[in-house]
Amino acid sequence: MTSSTLILLPGLMCDADVWMPLYPQLPTRHTPWVPDYGLNNSLTAMAQLVLQQAPADRFALAGHSMGGRVALEVVRLAPQRVTRLALLDTGHLPRPGGEAGAQEASKRHALLHIAQTQGVRAMAQTWVQGMVHPDRLMDVVLIEAIVGMFAHKSADVFACQIEALLARPDASDVLRTLTLPTLLLCGAQDSWSPPAQHEAMRALAPHAVLDVVADAGHMTPMEQPEAVAQSLSRWLRDGSDLGSSI
């Protein structure tokens, strides 16, 4: 059977480790590839890097968190190269104006200050408290996997990615034009990118389907890898029998 490329885009301060738990359960005919965004400080630049370095002309594309926003920019730039799209625990709107936008910037810069003064690991230990299902906060193996992954990156990378997220574009127009098989997925307890946010995305792309993963926060690929792999496997197979609560 001919192998096809599956590009997996990691989120803020994440790398291939966020996807690794899924690999044993994904169809073997799809070869995964995970990029490194380096010091790119815009989502468009990250998307351009993906398109330049992608190991195939056409590919299935999945993005988690910030990676979902990068995926939408890839589709904006080169829709003809993407065969199907999965957006996990992500969003599509720009940073809001007014007080809400100022508060977001303040919270992100506070985390950056911790990374710059105390180290990325210390920042990650603070960040992770709101990013997993509350019941998993005492799961030492999971928390260390997440914190250790963040520690692979530098505070300079964190600064660049925060800059990119604060300047994120509105991707509503991309969602409206989607005609390829599209999966939306999030954790039921994702407080950062909640199910309601994904319902709003589905309203713009009504042919897309939404899977809500039970007992998971924002880090669904690491919190519930079996459920996420099942959903992605269905999406990779034919994209026609999705849409359930797992």
Automatic annotation (TrEMBL):
What Gene3D superfamilies does UniProt report for this protein, alphabetically? alpha/beta hydrolase (3.40.50.1820)
Ranges of residues in domain AB hydrolase-1? 6-230
Q: What InterPro entries does UniProt report for this protein, alphabetically?
A: AB_hydrolase_1, AB_hydrolase_fold, Carboxylesterase_BioH
What is the official name of this protein in its record? 2-succinyl-6-hydroxy-2,4-cyclohexadiene-1-carboxylate synthase
